[in-house]
Backbone:
């Protein structure tokens, strides 16, 4: 199973995703914003990482650091550029918007059902 980082400023969404994915056997680390995700990955401030995920589910709209900026940062850093990303968004966003970022495996629109989430994770993991 995979190690997954879930990044969303909505705690209820993070809890829901965590429950669904842990039932599938995945190890899930939660971060409640882009800066907290960078800290968990050991990037800001530079430190030992809390997690080394295979996959990150990243909300697009977050305060402080939005999901697109976080995704670009992860793709540009040699220590995190292997992490596949599933973008979570409540806005109607075309996956073409993320076409230039090779680590983006899927875009998942909120609200989503558990089966759609499981399928997006499985698809993203298969692309590794």
Residues:
């Amino acid at each position: 199973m995979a190690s997954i980082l879930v990044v969303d400023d909505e705690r209820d969404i993070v809890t829901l995703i965590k429950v669904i994915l842990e039932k599938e056997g995945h190890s899930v680390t939660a971060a409640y914003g882009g800066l907290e995700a960078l800290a968990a990955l050991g990037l800001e401030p530079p430190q030992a990482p809390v997690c080394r995920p295979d996959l990150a589910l990243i909300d697009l709209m977050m305060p402080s650091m939005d999901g697109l900026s976080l995704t670009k940062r992860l793709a540009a850093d040699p220590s995190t550029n292997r992490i596949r990303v599933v973008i979570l968004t409540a806005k109607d966003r075309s996956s073409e918007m993320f076409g230039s970022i090779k680590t983006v495996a899927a875009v998942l629109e909120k609200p989503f059902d558990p089966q759609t989430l499981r399928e997006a994770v499985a698809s993203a993991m298969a692309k590794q």
Q: What stands out?
A: The CA atoms of residues 7 and 58 lie 5 Å apart. DSSP finds four helices and five strands in the chain. The beta strands are 3-7, 27-31, 55-59, 84-89, 104-109.
